[in-house]
């Protein structure tokens, strides 16, 4: 992969209950942050329009829709997302869904990410869901499927980054949620890491929401994470 600008390595999750609050976050962070994630919570209250607004303003947008449906529906959904000017879009990492997404994307610059195993899940959660693999094994298997399907990257925890790199090489973008600065509460996340741990393991982009959104000084919290990323590179 080509070298990434430092600012592009931090993706701030706009996991807030309204578009107005999301705009406050963006205004507060200003030119410090170039990349935002618009996920399910915000999508259902007007976030899709905001995502397009952010893209038009020059921000990069990770539209976290986690698509999974019949091939035709996934392909046409991705075709529509590609026309919105998004940078990243997520697909659950099932081989058929990923192949359909790649076909729907066509030659558009939209980059497709396969969601492997949610960072809120551990081996016990997978067993309860009927999987007979550990999280680490399933992430690597799905990363291989993503590479074979022509996807641009995957979403995985920092714990699996080194194994994924060994399995698929340097070309897939590895996007890592579950990032918690030292001393921060894990919340509902199970497989977490500090920003430095994730970068040193080989992650390309870190998705951070609550440690910034819940901070008394959001801009200072984001700046501290960027400084930690820079030191770890």
What does this structure look like?
The protein is α/β, with parallel strands linked by helices. It has a single domain, classed as TIM Barrel (Alpha-Beta Barrel), CATH 3.20.20. The protein has 10 helices and 8 strands. The protein has helices at 19-29, 40-56, 71-82, 95-105, 123-128, 135-149, 158-168, 195-201, 210-213, 218-232; strands spanning 10-13, 35-38, 60-67, 88-92, 111-115, 153-155, 173-176, 205-208. α3 packs parallel to α4 (95-105).
Protein topology:
Elements: E1 10-13, H1 19-29, E2 35-38, H2 40-56, E3 60-67, H3 71-82, E4 88-92, H4 95-105, E5 111-115, H5 123-128, H6 135-149, E6 153-155, H7 158-168, E7 173-176, H8 195-201, E8 205-208, H9 210-213, H10 218-232
Parallel strand pairs: 1-2, 1-8, 2-3, 3-4, 4-5, 5-6, 6-7, 7-8
Catalytic activity: orotidine 5'-phosphate + H(+) = UMP + CO2
Keywords: Decarboxylase, Lyase, Pyrimidine biosynthesis
Pfam family, one: OMPdecase
Pick out the low-confidence regions.
none
Distance between the termini: 15 Å
User: Any idea what the CATH architecture is?
Assistant: Alpha-Beta Barrel
Number of helices: 10
Query: In oligomeric terms, what are we looking at?
Result: single chain
Characterize the overall form: globular
Judged by helices, strands and strand pairing, the structural class is: alpha/beta
EC number: 4.1.1.23
GO biological process, one term: 'de novo' UMP biosynthetic process
GO molecular function: orotidine-5'-phosphate decarboxylase activity
Family: Belongs to the OMP decarboxylase family. Type 1 subfamily.
């Amino acid at each position: 992969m080509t070298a990434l600008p430092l600012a592009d390595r931090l993706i701030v999750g706009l996991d807030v209950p309204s578009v107005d609050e999301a705009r406050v976050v963006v205004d507060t962070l200003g030119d410090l942050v170039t990349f935002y994630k618009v996920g399910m919570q915000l999508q259902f209250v007007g976030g899709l329009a905001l995502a397009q607004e952010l893209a038009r303003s020059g921000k990069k947008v990770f539209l976290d829709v986690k698509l999974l449906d019949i091939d035709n529906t996934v392909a046409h959904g991705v075709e529509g997302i590609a026309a919105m000017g998004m940078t990243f879009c997520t697909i659950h990492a099932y081989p058929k869904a990923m192949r359909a997404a790649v076909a729907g994307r066509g030659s558009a610059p939209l980059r497709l990410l396969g969601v492997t195993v949610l960072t809120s899940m551990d081996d016990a959660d997978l067993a309860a869901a009927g999987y007979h693999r550990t999280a680490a094994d399933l992430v690597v298997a799905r990363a291989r499927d993503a590479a074979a399907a022509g996807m641009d990257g995957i979403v995985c925890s920092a714990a699996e980054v080194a194994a994924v790199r060994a399995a698929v090489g340097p070309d897939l973008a590895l996007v890592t949620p579950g990032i918690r600065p030292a001393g921060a509460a894990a919340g509902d996340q199970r497989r977490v890491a500090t920003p430095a741990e994730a970068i040193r393991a080989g992650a390309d982009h870190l998705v951070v929401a609550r440690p910034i959104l819940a901070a008394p000084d959001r801009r200072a919290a984001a700046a501290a994470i960027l400084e930690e990323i820079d030191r770890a590179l």
